[in-house]
Amino acid sequence: MQRQRRDVDPRVAFVGDIPHVAFYLQMQRFCLAVLAVVVLTGCDQKVIIHKFSAMEPTIRPDERIQVQMNAYRSLPPQRWDVVVFTPPMRSVPAGTVFSDLGIWTFRIVGTPGDIITFDDTQLLINGSVPSDRPSEIRHIQYKKTTAAGVPERWCSPTYPLTIPEGQYFVLGDNPDHANDSRSWGLLPRERILGKVAKK
Q1: pLDDT in tens, 35-68
Q2: Residues 142/137/53/80 CA torsion (nearest 10 deg)
Q3: pTM here?
Q4: Domain check: are 90 and 143 in the same one?
Q5: How far apart are CA 131 and CA 158, in angstroms?
Q6: What distance in Å separates the CA atoms of residue 83 and residue 52, rounded to the nearest whole number?
Q7: CA nearest 168: which of 153, 183, 181, 156?
Q8: Which among 8, 25, 48, 54 is least surrounded, fewest beta carbons within 10 Å?
């Protein structure tokens, strides 16, 4: 008597008739999908150690900060965002990786189209003191110059300063000890690496 031939799924042939093979394969696919999500999310986030006092008390020296690397993939940087960037006065060799760079962290206060100027004790944006400042920086008084001074090789801007497209005006939350846009001018968009999370 001829035995009836059974069609065997080649994906599970090696396990014969072991029960729950379909469940095993589904779990395998699920785990691979979860792993892919974790890997992709990890690529969007970087953790760096902030080395300077220019952003105190928001970010303290040697504090670890999480950077959203794709925060500006579809939207431009916004006023009051805290961003990490490569300093405009520094050239970056081709092939340099993130961890090799001298990374600076400041807060965006001026965006394209804004007019920046200063009175005796305060920053003015488009002719007035901005009323939408985050609570953690409302007490700060930004002076026109920084106590740290301006290195001779840098060029401080003149005011009133109209910010062109693709440029940003950034300041430190510890303005008396920050070499920020008051010292070296505007920050090009292409220098911005990402946004600091929850700052």
Answers
A1: 433 433 445 888 888 888 999 999 999 999 999 9
A2: -90
A3: 0.71
A4: yes
A5: 24
A6: 14
A7: 181
A8: 8
Shared domain for 102 and 189, answered yes or no, is yes
Which positions of the chain have pLDDT values less than 70? 1-43, 89-101, 146-155, 199
Tell me, yes or no, whether 107 and 147 share the same domain: yes
Give the number of residues written for the chain. 199
Q: Among 194, 191, 196, which Cα is nearest to 70's?
A: 194
Three-state secondary-structure class, residue 14:
helix
Residue ranges making up the domain that contains 169:
45-196
Residues 32, 108, single domain; the answer is: no
- Specify whether the CB–CB gap between 85 and 138 falls below 8 A: no
In tens, the pLDDT along 151-173 reads 545 667 889 999 999 999 999 99
Task: Kindly list the distances between the CA atom of residue 74 and the CA atoms of 77, 105, 189, in Å, as whole numbers in the listed order.
Answer: 10, 21, 13
Q: Which residues contact 108 (CB under 8 A, 6 or more apart)?
A: 77, 78, 79, 80, 81, 82, 83, 168, 169, 170
Whether 1 is covered by a domain: the verdict is: no
Strand order in the sheet with 192-196: 45-50, 63-68, 192-196, 82-85, 104-110, 167-171, 187-188
Could you tell me if residue 3 is inside a domain? no
For the record, the structure tokens of 151 come out as 């290195």
Amino acid 149 reads: G
